[in-house]
Amino acid sequence: MGYYQRYPIPVAAALWCGVPPADVKFILEQAKDVGRAIVSNPFVRCLEPKCRALHEAIEAGELPVYRENGGPVIEHVAPERRHVARTELREWITKHYPDQRPPTLFDETERATHTAIKTADFEALQADRDAARAEITKANQRANETNKKMTTLQGERDSLQYERDSLAAMVNKQYAGQDENIPTKERESLLKLVIGMAMKGYSYNPDAFKNNATTEIVNDLTLLGISITDDTVRKYLTEAKSKVLPIKPSP
User: Fold this and answer.
1) Which of 215, 236, 248 is nearest to 173 (CA)?
2) Which end of the chain is least crowded, N or C, by CB within 10 Å?
3) 83 beta partners
4) Helix (H) or strand (E) segment spanning residue 165
5) How far is residue 71's CA from residue 64's CA, in Å, rounded to a whole number?
6) Does residue 6 sit in helix, strand or coil?
7) Tens digits of per-residue pLDDT, 115-143?
């Protein structure tokens, strides 16, 4: 924020409260509208009263007011469009609130020229700043945790897609009529792969009378450009169920 910057009232109030320029946008986004160009944030308790003080100063003619662009205006300006110039804001604060010179608007030398800053006010300002920074830190931590979860979910998705693609390639080869010449031992291994991937990747239940897994497999193969019927998939799953799954003991 440049030295000659003009600020909307909530921004000017936040800077006056000592909110670092880099954090102003975040603090205002988390603030609640309690009036026209008057906002409140529980972590920056001085925000609302300072908004009101700036509006009152403008209405009393103590502080020049601007719109979004152009020079200062004398006529009434809607609260939402009110802007104040940095230099005039600093002069007004120095005159009316000489003990409130935050580093966001005054440099160290300017602040050192006044010894009237009360310890309680300074500590309250620091508490507001620290609370705002703590909230920003928490928001960053939540964002990092979300990114980690997304990465984990992407890895699981890639693993399932790999299993699906392997199953699709194998079933397509068999459907092409090449499975009849596969030796018995290799065919048994392929059947194990078929039913294993179906149970793991598509929640296929070999004991169920009806399985949605069959349709899901066919749909995924269709997305890959592989044509196959439900009956064909069901045929190999049934064969795999009868030949390679462990036989359950009778109750």
Assistant:
1) 236
2) C
3) 8, 66
4) helix 119-173
5) 10
6) strand
7) 455 556 667 777 888 888 888 888 888 88
Residue 174 C-alpha from the chain's centroid:
46
Judge whether 138 lies within some domain.
no
pLDDT for residue 110: 77
Q: For residue 40, list its beta bridge partners.
A: 32
Residues 96 and 169 in one domain: no
Tell me the sheet residues that pair with 6.
85
The domain total for the chain is: 2
The closest of 205, 216, 203 to 238, measured between CA atoms, is: 205
**Predicted pLDDT of residue 52:** 96
Q: What pLDDT digit, counting tens, does each position of 43-94 carry?
A: 999 999 999 999 999 999 999 999 988 778 888 999 999 999 999 999 999 9
pTM recorded for the entire structure = 0.45
Angle at the Cα of 43 from the Cα atoms of 39 and 46, rounded to 5 degrees? 55
The boundaries of the domain holding residue 90 are 6-117
**Token representation of residue 209:** 């009378």
Q: Is residue 234 part of a domain?
A: yes
Note whether 40 and 31 are within 8 A (CB): yes
Shared domain check, 195 and 98: no
Distance of CA 170 to the CA centre of its chain: 41
